[in-house]
Input
Amino acid sequence: MNTVAQQPPTPAYVGQPTARLLHTERARQVMRDRGLALLCASTDENLCYLSGHASDSTLCHFFDRWAAAVFPASPDIGGALIVPDYDLAYQVTRPTWLPETLSYGWEYSSAGVLLDAINKGLGIETDLRAPLRALFQRTRASASADLVSAIAAYIGRNFPKGEVKVGFDDLRIAAEVRAKVGDRLTTVDALFDFRRIRAVKTDAEIDLLRKAARINEAAVAAASKVVKEGALCADMVRAYRGVLADRGAKPLGERGMLFVSGPDGAFVLDHDYVEQKRFKGGESVVLDAISQFRLYHADMARTAVIGGETKRHREVYAAVAEALAAAEAQIKPGVHTSAMTKAAATVLQKHGLDPRLTSLLVHPIGLQVFDWGTPEDEHTGWVVQANQVLNFEVFYRDPTTGGMHLEDSLLVTDTAVESLSTFSRDLIEA
Output
């Protein structure tokens, strides 16, 4: 019987730009405040934020510099993503929302030679080849030899005369670009400019943070089911990491931060030391779980007790839960975060607990776990704004019973506060 080979269907995502993460109006306001004509991002999180680009070749850090995104303060100038020829195929299936894609590379690199062959029609046609050929042709006229040259060329084309002030998140690249452009280019460290912009989330960011939180809570649920007398702590950690891997996420650090039990369960300890231990009856177990999904972070904490809670466990955990609820009740746009800390500390004192033994920490979360907008925010706090996502954590560190920890990520809107996790806050009885 004769059969006709069919071409695979074109994937729906080919040629469809990824959802815009960048808050353009806020970015331009911050740039005006700082007198910046342009932002240039090359670190993972800011590159992704400005352009959506997060290829494995970028994230694996084979080289110190791989790609960059440039975003101008003027809406009359188009921003651009700059990638090596090697990543043009990635841009076919996950293109940037920025109006221009620029490339750099070497004429005789293996990727360049392959692209040239495909451009000439050699090889087997696939659903990728036609759009890849078009993108390759579109980037030839402006192609540069290397990343720094490509950034300098973009500045030269779009800011051909006069002084120009550009914010970089990598000052090494800034210095090399200035050497090419000349003294008319002023470069500044824009690390906290990016963080100020990112403090208020776009809908696309909120969607990613919500997905990250749901994956994280599923992993915590799996980990909590392993907690029982005689079980290895390592089994709990493996259960947590397994769910993350199955759902396209990964733990932050070696294992997702803090999975500990017993009297020493209030410290961050070497994971090899912790994971060889077996759970004992009567211990409290801290599951402080931090993970990452498509560069966005999830952070939640729950506490379990093995073999049924004691009166002391019940009392301390009730105080922790009440303190967290009191802090979260303060959250709304316009409120300073110090009001949350004060409310939580008052509850702990009411229950006879020492606030000095308790981590009462409020932190924004997003492309970083602690995504503070300014260096001062860590110590003095900040005023909450609508469409921020933040955590308030209450971690009581008892020298006798160990840790009692509870936290979730919260989305703050003009009218409500939404927990991104649906996992029960009750003390887990293992």
About this structure: Residues 203-226 form the longest helix (24 residues). The CA atoms of residues 124 and 205 lie 38 Å apart. The chain has two domains: 24-198, 203-429.
